[in-house]
Each structure stands twice: as structure tokens, then as C-alpha cells.
Design goal:
heterodimer; A: mainly alpha; two-stranded antiparallel ribbon; 5 helices; globular; B: alpha/beta; FAD/NAD(P)-binding domain; 5-stranded parallel β-sheet; 7 helices; binds flavin-adenine dinucleotide
């Protein structure tokens, strides 16, 4: 599916996740964050970078992997991305929706 | 003489012993199997025991009875595997091996969640994934007067991922039959975004939930069980109240995998998805619930794996390349209550599809649709398990790789 985020044409899945991480950039992230009523802080960026790293290394993301990430605990994760933190953070990070999604 | 050692005499280990005893030359190979317990449990029966559908005797038998003659059976605890030294340490002896098959399964780890294994464990907080839990729950249900029953699972992966759903469906028909369904408020709580892991099956199952008046709470990631307020609490501070909690705790591989430094975070052994060889040691193979392969953790999966693994062990011995054959094939009945069941058939690539099984266009089993036939199929599975599956006898017409015949692909 075609979509236009922050004035940029990107490929997305049915539920709005980028299909190709190489099309991602910071403007896109800021725009998707806005749609979810989130203003990105340094801590958000740190988490988003970490998520992209995991996906590039083909490590499956889960609430358990967040617990072990060493950069954030689960409570903070919920504070940064209220609602469904893994679902929302992966969308902003431009990576696929995790299978065991929260 | 060479030694092949199988660790664990559950579903997978027992099947491998039965397959290999007739395939390996007795002049060259000793086969040994090790398990800590005398009893072999039919774990799928733990779903029925709480509702008085099965008796204790129907779900357990003496394990040694299923180990073929010609295989050396040792009932001892496995302390540690030393994969670089090709040896396994038991309680009081050490075994050397040329080939090792790890079939130590997985089990519940309620200690992973704060408060779960607390003061109310097996009083108002139950599991049904162990014999003890399932039996304690049966005794509780026999004279439970009703209230809020919450059926919950903690995180994926769990063995038989449909079991929590089946539990809630069976609970609905159990209370209906007892004439007390109006006194029970049933809620299903899941960490997933929907009723099941696969979208098509989720759609079919969500419909049933509605029909049966079962509340569903999705995206719930449990942080702790509050034993004072009788609530489960998630990381986002959402709470669900219960009078009776039936939970599936985190599932983990056995501690022996951790002690041996052979597992991931959850003590599952990194395994090649299609050959079932361990990724770290070429003479170590892994089967069943002990692997980290992204297939369902189910007896039917272990059965399909055992056929590929048997061929691969023979290829390995002959010094030939292994077959990359296993496709993640799973075939599971889902009990939906009132003597009906669904059947799903899927693999790594295809999610459960509608259609007929095992004969294309004829069935008699209906994929993804409720039917009485499917329920009989599920009950027949117990007989098949003890009499065919464990003995490594192929199940007629059901092949190790998934077939797309008779399935609707869209
Ligand atoms: C409630 C429930 C319902 C289920 N329903 C179904 C179903 O309908 N259909 C289906 O196909 N599957 C079902 N399953 C799943 C199925 O039972 C398992 O997938 C299957 O038993 C896995 O076999 P396994 O050999 O890998 O592990 P197991 O059968 O668990 O065997 C592992 C063995 O290793 C031994 N072991 C482990 N560590 C040690 C140690 N350190 N020392 C000595 N021995 C050790 C254990 O004692 C055990 O006997 C269900 C499971 C449960 C819990």
C-alpha cells in the first residue's frame, strides 16, 4: 500500500507499518508519533534506535526483550508510549509489527 | 560401539527411541534414554481433567512401558550437558555420547511473575499445565459456587497456544451443564492483540467468544498478581478482578539447559528451523518443546519433527548433508465446548486455512469450522497418542509436510 507521511511517499502495511525501513527518516517518525499524541524526546529516540538495531540483527522484539534491553524498564516504556508501547514504538521506528504484540 | 543418548522421555524422546531402535544397527549403536520421572503424562488431558471429562488414570501411565526393547532406559535427573566434551552428567553417573538428542520439553515458570506463585497458588490462582495444577483445579471446580473466572496467559510462546482458549470454551459448557452459567462471569485475558496468534483463526474464534458471552481483554501484559485485591495488574496499570484465576504462566525450557549454557533467555535451544540440528553443536539435535523454532509447541508438531529428525540422524551418521525438510507443520484440534471442536492445520508459512482434512474436498474433518466430527477427532487423539504417536507409527493420511490440497487460499 502507498501512503504519504510528512510529505514523503512510503510503502506501508494494512495497519500502517512501514514495509521498508530504508524509507524511514526522522520526519516520518515525528509525524507518526504525533498521530499517536507523542512528542519525541531524547529518551524516545534512544529506544527507537535500539528497536531498529534489534530488527536489523533479526532479534525478535517482545516485552521480555525490553526488560533485558538495559536502556529502559517496562514502566518507563509504558510511560513513553502509552497504550500499546511495543505496537506504537515499532510503528514510529519504521519496523514490522512484532508478532507477540503488546 | 557408539552411543546415541536421548534426554527426556516425554512425547518427543519416546517417539525418537521408537523410531531409531529399528533404524540403527545394533552392532554399532547403543541407544540410551533418560528421564527424571517414572510417570509419562498425557498433557493434552490436563485440559479435560478439571472438568471431570477425563479421570486421573486416563492421563498418566508408567513411562518405561513405552520405551522399546533394545533401548537402555535410565530414570535419573540430568544435571548438566557438556556439549564440547560430548558428555552428560546425571545424578550419579556420566554418559558419553556420539550423538545427543535434546528432548527435555518445557514447563511453567510462575516464579517469573510477581505474586503468581504466592499465598493463593492452587487456592484461587491455578494453572492447568501441570498434573498437580489441573487436579487441584478439578477439586476446586467441583464445589465452586460461581463468581468471576478469569482465564489468562502470560506471554508467548506457550505450549499448545490454543489451550487457554479451549479452557474458557470448556468452562462455558461445564457451567452451562451444571445449570450455573448465569452465576459465572467468564473473561479471557491475553497479551496478544486478538484471541489467537494467527489472524484468520482469530476471526473465527472471536465470533465464538461473543456467541458464548465470554469477555475478552487483549493487549494485557501482566506485571503482577495482587493477592490482596484478587486482581491481575498489567504494566499499563490496567487491572482485572477475579474470584478464580486460571493462568498459564511463562513457559520455559528446563533449568538443565540454562546450567549447560545451551539456551536463550527462556532456556530454549537455538535450533535449525528445517533440519532440527542445534545451531551450536553439530552432533546435538533438538526436538519438541525444547527447541526455539517458531512452530507451535505441540505433540503433533513433535510427531512431524520426529520423522524429519529420524531421517537426518541417519544422514548425519552416513556423513551426508541433512534434509532441510521440516516446515513448521502443526495440526491441532480446538475444543469449543458442547461436544464440538475446530481443526486447524498450518506451518511456518501458511496460517490456518479453511477447507477439509485430511482428504481434500471430503474431510471428514472441517478446517476452521466447528463440528462434532472434530470433537471426536480430539478425543480420539488420546488413543492415537498412547497407541500410535508414542510408538512412532505414522498417522494415516497425515504427512509430515503440510499439504495445501483441499484448503482455501486467498
Ligand atoms: C494443557 C496442555 C494441553 C495440550 N494439548 C495438546 C493438544 O491438544 N495437542 C498437541 O499436539 N499437544 C498438546 N499439548 C502439548 C504437548 O503435550 C507437548 O507439546 C509435548 O508433550 C511436547 O513433548 P516433549 O517431548 O518435547 O516434552 P515433554 O513431553 O514435556 O517431555 C519432556 C521430558 O523431559 C524430562 N526432563 C526435562 N528436564 C529433565 C531433567 N533435567 N532431568 C531428567 N528429565 C528431564 C521431563 O521429565 C519430561 O518427561 C498440550 C500441553 C498442555 C500442557
Amino acid at each position: 500500500m502507498d501512503s504519504n507521511i510528512a510529505g514523503i511517499r512510503v510503502d506501508v502495511t494494512e495497519d500502517g507499518y512501514l514495509s521498508d525501513l530504508s524509507q524511514w527518516n526522522k520526519e516520518i517518525a515525528i509525524e507518526i508519533a504525533k498521530e499517536n499524541n507523542i512528542e519525541l524526546t531524547d529518551k524516545h529516540w534512544e529506544v527507537l534506535n535500539w528497536i531498529q538495531e534489534q530488527v536489523k540483527n533479526e532479534v525478535a522484539l517482545s516485552i521480555r526483550s525490553i526488560k533485558k534491553s538495559g536502556i529502559i524498564d517496562i514502566k518507563e516504556f509504558y510511560d513513553l508510549f502509552p497504550g500499546g508501547p511495543l505496537k506504537i514504538s515499532t510503528k514510529i521506528a519504521g519496523v514490522p509489527k512484532p508478532k507477540s504484540c503488546i | 560401539m557408539k552411543n546415541l543418548v536421548i534426554l527426556g522421555a516425554g512425547t518427543s524422546g519416546t517417539m525418537m527411541a521408537n523410531h531409531l531402535v529399528s533404524k540403527l544397527d545394533k552392532k554399532d549403536w547403543n541407544i540410551t534414554i533418560v528421564d527424571q520421572y517414572k510417570t509419562h503424562y498425557y498433557q493434552p488431558g490436563f485440559l479435560f481433567l478439571p472438568f471431570d471429562i477425563y479421570t486421573e488414570d486416563q492421563v498418566k501411565k508408567v513411562g518405561e512401558k513405552f520405551i522399546p526393547k533394545g533401548v537402555n532406559y535410565i530414570q535419573k535427573k540430568i544435571e548438566q550437558i557438556f556439549p564440547t566434551e560430548n558428555k552428560v552428567e546425571l545424578e550419579d553417573e556420566t554418559l558419553q555420547y556420539d550423538i545427543l538428542i535434546v528432548a527435555t520439553g518445557c514447563k511453567i515458570a510462575p516464579q517469573e511473575t510477581e505474586g503468581m506463585k504466592g499465598e493463593n497458588w492452587h487456592k484461587t490462582v491455578f494453572d492447568f499445565y501441570t498434573y498437580e495444577g489441573s487436579l487441584a483445579l478439578r477439586n476446586k471446580l467441583r464445589d465452586w459456587k460461581g463468581g468471576k473466572m478469569v482465564v489468562h496467559f502470560t506471554e508467548m510462546p506457550i505450549k499448545c497456544p490454543v489451550a487457554p482458549l479451549e479452557f474458557v470454551f470448556l468452562a462455558d459448557s461445564y457451567f452451562t451443564k451444571k445449570g450455573m452459567r448465569d452465576k459465572v462471569d467468564l473473561t479471557f485475558v491475553t497479551p496478544l492483540g486478538g484471541a489467537f496468534t494467527k489472524p484468520k483463526a482469530t476471526a473465527a474464534l472471536s465470533h465464538l467468544m461473543k456467541e458464548k458471552n465470554i469477555n475478552v481483554v487483549t493487549d494485557f501484559n501482566i506485571e503482577r498478581v495482587d493477592n490482596e485485591k484478587n486482581q491481575i495488574v498489567d504494566y499499563g496499570d490496567t487491572t482485572v478482578d477475579f474470584d478464580l484465576l486460571v493462568t498459564v504462566p511463562t513457559n520455559m525450557g528446563d533449568e538443565v539447559i540454562e546450567r549447560s549454557g545451551m539456551g536463550d533467555d527462556l532456556n530454549f535451544v537455538p535450533t535449525h528451523h528445517n533440519t532440527l540440528q542445534s545451531l551450536d553443536h553439530e552432533n546435538v539435535f533438538v526436538i519438541g518443546d525444547a527447541t526455539n523454532v517458531p512452530a507451535s509447541k505441540a505433540g503433533s508438531v513433535a510427531h512431524f519433527e520426529s520423522e524429519t529428525l529420524t531421517d537426518n540422524i541417519l544422514l548425519y551418521i552416513a556423513g551426508k548433508p541433512l534434509k532441510e525438510e521440516f516446515d513448521g507443520h502443526a495440526n491441532c484440534f480446538i475444543e469449543t465446548g458442547n461436544n464440538k471442536a475446530l481443526l486447524i492445520d498450518f506451518n511456518y508459512k501458511y496460517e490456518p486455512l479453511e477447507g477439509t482434512f485430511p482428504i481434500a474436498g471430503i474431510g471428514p474433518l472441517q478446517l476452521l469450522k466447528e463440528s462434532i466430527f472434530n470433537h471426536w477427532g480430539k478425543l480420539a487423539f488420546r488413543w492415537i497418542y498412547w497407541n500410535m504417536l508414542l510408538k512412532g507409527i505414522p498417522i494415516p493420511m497425515v504427512s509430515r509436510n503440510m499439504s495445501l490440497k483441499g484448503k482455501k487460499i486467498n
